[in-house]
Amino acid sequence: MEKLISGIHHITALAEEPQRNIDFYTGVLGLRLVKKTVNFDAPQIYHLYYGNETGAPGTLLTFFPYEGIKRGRRGSRMITSTGFSAPYYSISYWEYRLKRFKIAFTKPAVRFEKETVIYFEDPDGMGLELVFNDHDPRSAFTYGNIPLEHSIKGFYHAEIWAHEPELTADLLTGKMDHRLMAVENNRYRYASTDQPGCFIDIVHMTDKPEGIMGGGSVHHIAFNTANRQTQETMRSKISESMLNPTPVIDRNYFTSIYFREPGGVLFEIATTGPGVEIDEPREKLGESFMLPLQYEPYRNDLEKMMKPLKLNLNNYI
Q1: SS3 at position 118
Q2: What is the domain count for the chain?
Q3: Which of 114, 160, 186, 276 has the greatest number of beta carbons closer than 10 A?
Q4: Within 13 Å of residue 34, how many CA atoms lie on the same side as its CB?
Q5: Exposed, middle or buried: residue 199 (CB in 10 Å: 0-12, 13-18, 19+)?
Q6: Where residue 218 falls among pLDDT bands split at 50, 70, 90?
Q7: Is 137 within the bounds of a domain?
Q8: Is residue 2 part of a domain?
Q9: What is the rounded CA–CA span in Å between residue 248 and residue 73?
Q10: Does residue 300 form part of some domain?
Q11: pLDDT tens figures, 106-141
Q12: How far is CA 180 from the centre of its chain?
């Protein structure tokens, strides 16, 4: 039987300053800005999407930048680290690059005997990891500021800190097609498919207070499902667990349902399509300010309200 969930679709976080956010994720990390739009629920706020060349599910990191937002606090009941997949032979390259741009990072550490991890943070304090491995077949993307052979390929995993990890684990394994893949000390790895972009690491943290949402916090994680039919099936399964999912919401590039899992993290189920190429050709992704139809009548007002944004890639070669 075909799985209803096939991995991570996207991860959405909160930031403070949109231009700084673009500079870091396109300049330092080399992700592609694939969509520049608005928060559909608060159109005075940008919604920035980063990913690979096509903005495929499993590569999409998105941000709501709220200027003046207070910084959040990492803690339990939230996603505390977002892991990106990079080639195993690129460890030295990325150590040098992070040092060059004065980004503090941890010493490389081996995890699960098959990957090497470096932890660092973005300018808002969001926890990030580069996971160096030799088992990711996906193609990478580069603007040219990072050699293609060292470029990020998409997500590797998301990490959740939990006081009661079994609450989230029971949902993942019971309703969301995941299974336990590996255990290392207090880290439990689950996945719908045993490949990068599908891993959810639940870390049992008894000594950490609850996290506080703010700048640098992950707002929610979305899981990929094939289409509206599989999404409706997932919605029924979530409803059976008394988790009160939202109705299906049209996000233009996919449709979504949202619910808070028993451990406290906001989950989303998003469809694979229609994708970010629905309103921009692949070669032009991220270049224009795109609006859904309901906000097109307000384009002039929104454009006056929003700060202009640009790519500053020459500063990050």
Answers
A1: strand
A2: 1
A3: 160
A4: 26
A5: buried
A6: very high
A7: yes
A8: no
A9: 31
A10: yes
A11: 999 999 999 999 999 999 999 999 999 999 999 999
A12: 21
